[in-house]
Design a protein that fits this description.
Radius of gyration: 23 Å
Order of helices and strands: HHHHHHEEHHHHHH
Largest sheet: 2 strands, antiparallel
Strand content: under 5%
Mean pLDDT: 79
Strand order of the largest sheet: 1-2
Number of helices: 12
Length: 355
């Protein structure tokens, strides 16, 4: 398995086995590590990510209220995360058995993973920007702005489809006689192989890390400054939530993109490498990508369950199905109304509940 761009992390990178120009490495500790580590970790991410995001979708759909603004983005974020994690069993199977599925499934599953990898990241930008507008400029996402959110969602999916065209074109199931394994890999034309790999790594780092990190930082810094000017800031946990959101994204994805940066330097032959370096880089790539995938499990907690608005939706659905009694319902909403600062305007308070 290589990296997410030139040779995506979810595909084996057979070229790395021939890591030394003068010899072929006789041992493959990376493959042994993948066989032991990936199936169990992917199973964990699959179960947690599928369960948490299905809960988000169920609550939003069963609430009997039309989706507006931030809810639209959270809903699509959950869909993207679900479609991403459902591909993981295929890559877990490849880590142990090689690619035992048909060649078309290689293109399809690989493209689905890449589409939703980008979608999951880009919808985080949408959520951050919606919160920025709703709090800094008190723009409430109803009516006309709801249509804007829908159009934005369509544009995000189209951009993700375009970014995944190289995967669908060049992904194929290829047999490697050195390892006696068939793997789902990106196979570029020989004359442009290095160019493609480096270009995709750079695009990946810009679109999936640099751009969202800048956007999230800009939006949340201005949100913090706005909230600090409000008399009700000390009574709300908005600052903690913002810090957790940004920190979770940075901690989950920065190791992966650091490995990608080292991979780029390796492709440009700016580093002196050998078999041990290639193996260690591939192992680091595997661990870092799994950590990034784990962010899909955190998204329901960060963008849904920690928010007052979503928790109220969840309790409403549970009450409708008889999972909570009327006494708890009354106590919860009485406590919520008492802790809300009356000095906030209605629009500002509604904006905050998006957290």
């Amino acid at each position: 398995m290589g990296n997410f761009s030139g040779e995506p992390m979810y595909y084996y990178d057979n070229s790395s086995y021939d890591c030394c120009s003068d010899m072929v490495c006789s041992e493959n500790p990376y493959q042994e590590f993948s066989e032991r580590f990936l199936p169990s970790f992917y199973a964990l991410i699959f179960l947690l990510g599928l369960g948490g995001n299905l809960m988000v979708i169920a609550v939003l759909l069963l609430d009997r209220v039309s989706l507006f603004g931030n809810d639209i983005f959270v809903f699509n974020l959950a869909i993207a995360d679900i479609l991403l994690v459902v591909t993981l069993p295929f890559w877990a199977a490849q880590a142990v058995l090689g690619w035992i599925f048909k060649g078309f499934l290689c293109k399809l599953i690989g493209s689905i993973l890449k589409i939703n990898f980008y979608a999951s990241i880009l919808f985080l930008i949408c959520i951050s920007f919606e919160r920025y507008l709703s709090i800094v400029y008190v723009v409430r996402m109803y009516n006309r702005n709801r249509r804007f959110a829908v159009y934005t969602t369509v544009m995000v999916w189209l951009v993700c489809l375009l970014l995944t065209v190289p995967d669908f074109v060049y992904l194929m199931a290829e047999f490697d006689s050195r390892t006696n394994v068939t793997s789902c890999v990106l196979v570029f034309p020989p004359h442009s192989n290095k160019t493609w790999k480096i270009a995709l790594i750079v695009i990946n780092q810009v679109v999936a890390f640099v751009l969202p990190l800048i956007a999230m930082t800009y939006c949340y810094v201005h949100i913090i400054l706005t909230l600090r000017r409000s008399k009700g800031f000390q009574k709300h946990k908005a600052l903690k939530v913002i810090i957790v959101v940004v920190a979770a994204f940075f901690l989950c994805w920065s190791p992966y993109h650091l490995v990608q940066f080292l991979t780029t330097l390796d492709r440009l032959e700016l580093l002196e490498t050998g078999c041990n370096w290639e193996d260690n880089l591939n192992i680091a790539d595997t661990i870092a990508t799994c950590l990034g995938f784990f962010h899909c499990c955190l998204n329901p907690l960060l963008y849904a369950f920690v928010g007052v608005k979503f928790r109220n939706k969840l309790l409403t659905v549970l009450r409708r199905f008889g999972c909570i009694n009327q006494n708890y319902w009354n106590r919860h909403f009485r406590a919520s109304s008492q802790t809300r600062d009356s000095s906030w305007s209605e629009s500002t308070d509604c904006s905050y509940t998006a957290f």
